[in-house]
Amino acid sequence: MVQSAKPVQPIWCPGCGDFGVLAAVKKAANELKIPPYQLALVGGIGCSGSIHNFLEVNGIHALHGRLLAQAIGVKLANPQLTVVAAGGDGDGYAIGMGHFIHAFKHNVSLVYLVMNNETYGLTKGQASPTSQIGFEGNIEHPFDSILTSLSIPVPNFIARTFSGDPKTMTAILVEALKFTQDHRGFAFIEDLSPCVTYNDTYKLWREKVQDVSKLDGYDPTDRQVMFRLCQETREKGKIPVGVMHRPSDAEKGEIGLEKALLPDDLGPARADLSIDANLASYTKLIRSVT
Ligand SMILES: Cc1ncc(C[n+]2csc(CCOP(=O)(O)OP(=O)(O)O)c2C)c(N)n1
Ligand code: SF4
Ligand SMILES: [Mg+2]
Question: What pLDDT band is residue 1 in, cutting at 50, 70 and 90?
Fold first, then answer.
């Protein structure tokens, strides 16, 4: 559903980590001076996915697990928009997992922001793909989105942030937004965003987060190094946060899929489809089928 109404007050529980994400989106958009009409926010289904209702921007409430498909459609329809897809860990890593993996490969220039609270918040706290063993009877190992994304050899931007550190989160979001505005491809950020009602992990995550940029050998242009650092950090019982992949200068350039498909920057939303402007093409098309 495309939203045109004025923003409303957040409906989140007081203290929900998603407030930190909302504040970071506002600050980053202000810092980059993105006017509301240039920003499109595609929300998933879940507490997190309602974020677009609380900002005066172009907003779409997508189907559960399908926000990336819709966000990609928005960017390809109008590549001049800055596009952010925002949803939960259930939305992105369960029903939406197929779209998640393919988004790295498609490499369309948009920011995908996953608010990971290790639970299905909206439906009252069931286990999600990132839940720890023992949470609500969960007996499966938690999924790690960063290790997965580092294993896909496409020059995407990859990061993990924590709602308890809004300053760093805003700085990383600014970098990710710029990356997509420069048509450099897909930018993925997983934000650790505690659900204070069903899985309050604030205290635990404060103790566990490890800034990867402080680790010996940190090099976000080298996937192998970052995979090893993240894996070692996990084995020590810590959660790696920070920028995990930032393509090297050699990989720079306008390589987002929208550039390959629409080199003139004009998507169908802004193209002149009038008969006069396209008479030669229409004639050619009709002749080819008659
Ligand atoms: C197709 C479909 N399946 C299931 C649901 C029920 N449902 C609504 S939200 C949700 C999960 C929300 O969890 P998450 O994506 O982690 O978001 P959170 O609420 O934690 O922010 C589910 C399973 C649905 N709305 N649509
Ligand atoms: S249920 Fe959890 S995720 Fe949903 S608004 Fe409340 S604290 Fe946030
Ligand atoms: Mg969730």
Answer: very low
